[in-house]
């Protein structure tokens, strides 16, 4: 079984594309991808280490598929889980709601007792407001395929260097 479950929501496919790139940065079989549209609490429960990725849609909202998936979070013992988050957004189009969904989802998992890793500096982004900023940092990796796609590869590389060892060191849930 894969060591890490990577769960993602996507509307136009950008987040799925990033999820696939992340999977490729690990050894064969280490990461399993799950679109939240087809995932369950049991799918999450089998991992100790998880990655979640989401775009922000509407005006600073979770994608509909992720909202529909929220009840499944109740079926998981989050106290035994470590989670790294990434979020996609558009800082020019939505400077007042930039990657809000990342912050909204972070707060839900935090409240449920998960250990969250992978915070990310706000340097290099231009925006006014974001729910994903906590204590001056983004709560996960932030990618902007609409305006800064050229930076995605190096941002991913740097972030994975940070979270990969910790995620891989976690034993498979028993
Ligand atoms: C209708 C719509 C609403 C959006 N609202 C926001 C928003 O509030 N904040 C933000 O940062 N990005 C917003 N975005 C930008 C998306 O998050 C961004 O394009 C992302 O890469 C889409 O990922 P996906 O292809 O996986 O759905 C919006 C995009 C669309 C099409």
What overall form do the CA principal axes indicate?
A: globular
Instruction: Give the number of helices.
Output: 5
Tally of separate domains: 1
Largest sheet: 6 strands, parallel
Instruction: Please report which band the strand proportion falls in: under 5%, 5-15%, 15-25%, 25-35%, 35-45% or over 45%.
Output: 15-25%
By DSSP, the count of extended strands is 9
Radius of gyration: 15 Å
The class by helix and strand makeup works out as alpha/beta
- CATH C-level category: Alpha Beta
| Helical amount | 25-40%
Give the rounded overall mean pLDDT. Answer: 96
The named CATH superfamily: Flavodoxin domain
* Distance between the first and last residues' Cα: 12 Å
Ions, cofactors and other ligands present here are: flavin mononucleotide
Uncertain parts: none
Give the SSE order as H and E letters. Answer: EHEHEHEHEEEEEH
* CATH fold naming: Rossmann fold
> Which CATH architecture is right?
3-Layer(aba) Sandwich
Write the layout of secondary structure elements.
Layout: E1 4-8, H1 14-24, E2 31-35, H2 41-45, E3 49-55, H3 64-73, E4 82-88, H4 100-111, E5 115-117, E6 120-121, E7 133-134, E8 137-138, E9 141-143, H5 152-169
Parallel strand pairs: 1-2, 1-3, 3-4, 4-5, 4-9
Antiparallel strand pairs: 6-8, 7-8
This protein binds flavin mononucleotide.
